[in-house]
Amino acid sequence: MARETITKVVVPVAGMGTRLLPATKSQPKEMLPVGRRPVVQYVVEELEEAGLKQILFITGRKKSAIEDHFDPDPELVSTLAAGGGYALLEELRYTETDARFFYTRQSVPKGLGDAVGHGREFVGDEHFVVALGDSIIKSPDGSSLLKIMIKAHLEHGAACTVAVERVAPDEVYRYGIVKPAAGQEDQENFDLEDVVEKPRPDTAPSNLAIAARYVFSPAIFEAIQRTAPDRQGELQLTDSIRLLIQLGHKVRAVCLRPGEQRYDIGNFESYFKAFIDFALADEKYGYLVRQYLKRKAREI
User: Fold this and answer.
1) Predicted pLDDT of residue 75
2) pLDDT per residue over 112-170, tens digit each?
């Protein structure tokens, strides 16, 4: 297959965040702070590191704060500069980017598959990335999982490549779970025979869960159109990926590497853990946080 360059990415951020109420009643969950940055800023920085410069957000109600966050703010910059707030000005460098941001609205929440389908006109006939806006992928060595996924996707001529991570067997019912092709179960980059949305632990084909990052060819849009809604009337992206396999398309997976971690900001337990981990790793405040936690641990 001829080498291509992938530059476009669709970032679904239309979810209501009900499991994080009341914190998300008036702000998007993607804007909740993890350490000193909101969740979605980590996602965008990951995309830019992978060379993805055209970013389409699939938004919904009460999501305008995401647009505001990535807009330059000349008035704020002027105020900080006049007051000598140069250290704070450095914190706004993320707005000085050559990435282009686009927005479209999923007015009715009809599932992740429907949200991705809203990107069809933006994508056209190009391969593209989907990155969930409420999940952070942390790579300890600073390397890009998405670069690895894109390279594997193009080299193998895949219609879909998903990131996967191992989860506890009794937790598989929370995720889309993949079935590796026979003989490839122990590989880090492999073909898929099947993928199942939230299976029961006794029927799950593996404990490898889809981890919030995807690379697609435009074939996914036809699959989404042909996907039946679930019992809640939503289109599950996992079901559309399964249909790609059934239609004979090549679908592959890339495992998160040792030390690589996905933080899913979907409930308070995972949010608290993410905040603690990022606070501990903070270059400026990490030492102070570690000392505080050591003192608190003695009181527990």
Assistant:
1) 86
2) 999 999 999 999 999 999 999 999 999 877 678 999 999 999 999 999 999 999 999 99
Give per-residue pLDDT as tens, 54-68: 999 999 888 899 999
- CATH number for the domain spanning 31: value is 3.90.550.10
> Is the pTM above the cut of 0.90?
yes
Which of 25-39, 80-94, 181-195, 264-278 is predicted least confidently? 80-94
For residue 272, tell me if it sits in a domain. Answer: no
Residue that has been written with the tokens 């300890």 in this structure: 140
176 within domain boundaries: yes
d(CA 36, CA 34): 6
Strands 261-264 and 135-138: antiparallel
Q: How far apart are CA 21 and CA 19, in angstroms?
A: 6
Compute the distance between CA of residue 276 and CA of residue 284 in angstroms, rounded to an integer.
14
150, part of any domain: yes
Residue 134 within any structural domain of the chain: yes
Other beta carbons less than 10 A from residue 64's beta carbon: 11
**Number of domains, the chain:** 1
